[in-house]
């Protein structure tokens, strides 16, 4: 009996130690969740400073793609810029963003289409997207990760949720810290010069749904090939306020909403008016974010 009592006491001590460890772990997890955003931002800034963008841009295929991309951007804007390298891409992007949101989206979509031979996109839809959509999504995920690192920074292929709640194995691309978003410093550029036209490009030209989910706190972005984007009224990217350093915001006159009203007065577009009404509650939101093409 004494031996059994000792065994019970030992089991109780083990249970207490187990609960103590669990409580400690939960406390650490809670502390991490409550870490101020400034600490998170510093962490990602430190990580970004370790990225050798010069080495990435120096790779032959990246140099070729960047040169082609710049050429097509200059054609879309109507003129080139004096700056060189990646800064030229950002300067051209800011000039592109001076057009109306609808025009910016349309011109960006045309840029993406012009990067490919005229026959390739229709052929891809027929040969891959329609008969083998999952395989087509995987192909595009890998192609994006391999060819867009110079533009967005380090990224990797990952598994994501796709339409129907299924798991899309290797159908996603996780961008660690989007260089394009960070350098541009504007949610309007992210939405109108990247997210909306890119999603439209894959859906319309390649026959594949794509959802891009930018994170404006850490500058990461998740590409999910095979997932249909939510309605824009439910998409957080369209409700996000712009950054304090946003060039579009500084260049505007008056409040963001006042600029929206002025732009709405210059057009009879119902979609544009809907966009104005959609941001009426937030004057801090970037004044150039609009519904899609």
UniProtKB/TrEMBL annotation:
- Which intervals of the chain are annotated as region Disordered? 1-33
Extent of Low complexity compositional bias: 1-17
Locate the compositionally biased regions of type Basic and acidic residues. 20-31
What region holds the Beta-carotene isomerase D27-like C-terminal domain?
A: 150-233
**Under the GO molecular function aspect, what terms does this record hold?**
iron ion binding
Q: Which Pfam families match?
A: D27-like_C
Q: Spell out the InterPro entries in the cross-references.
A: D27-like, D27-like_C
Q: What is this protein called?
A: Beta-carotene isomerase D27-like C-terminal domain-containing protein
Q: Which species? A: Dunaliella tertiolecta (Green alga)
């Amino acid at each position: 009996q004494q031996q059994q009592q000792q065994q019970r006491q030992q089991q109780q001590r083990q249970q207490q130690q187990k609960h103590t460890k669990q409580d400690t772990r939960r406390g650490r997890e809670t502390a991490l969740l409550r870490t101020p955003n400034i600490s998170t931002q510093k962490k990602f800034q430190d990580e970004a400073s370790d990225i050798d963008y010069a080495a990435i841009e120096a790779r032959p295929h990246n140099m070729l793609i960047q040169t082609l991309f710049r050429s097509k951007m200059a054609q879309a804007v109507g003129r080139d810029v004096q700056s060189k390298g990646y800064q030229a891409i950002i300067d051209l992007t800011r000039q592109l963003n001076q057009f109306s949101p609808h025009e910016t989206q349309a011109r960006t979509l045309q840029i993406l289409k012009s990067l490919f031979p005229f026959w390739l996109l229709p052929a891809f839809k027929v040969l891959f997207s329609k008969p083998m959509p999952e395989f087509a999504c995987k192909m595009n995920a890998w192609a994006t990760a391999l060819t867009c690192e110079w533009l967005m920074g380090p990224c990797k292929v990952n598994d994501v949720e796709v339409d129907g709640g299924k798991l899309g194995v290797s159908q996603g691309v996780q961008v660690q810290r989007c260089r394009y978003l960070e350098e541009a410093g504007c949610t309007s550029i992210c939405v109108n010069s990247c997210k909306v036209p890119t999603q439209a490009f894959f859906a319309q030209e390649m026959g594949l749904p794509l959802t891009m989910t930018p994170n404006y706190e850490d500058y990461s972005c998740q590409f999910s090939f095979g997932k249909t984007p939510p309605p824009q009224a439910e998409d957080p990217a369209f409700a996000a306020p712009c950054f304090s350093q946003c060039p579009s915001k500084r260049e505007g006159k008056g409040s963001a909403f006042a600029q929206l009203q002025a732009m709405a007065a210059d057009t009879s577009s119902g979609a544009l008016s809907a966009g104005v009404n959609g941001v009426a509650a937030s004057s801090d939101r970037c004044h150039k974010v609009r519904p899609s093409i």
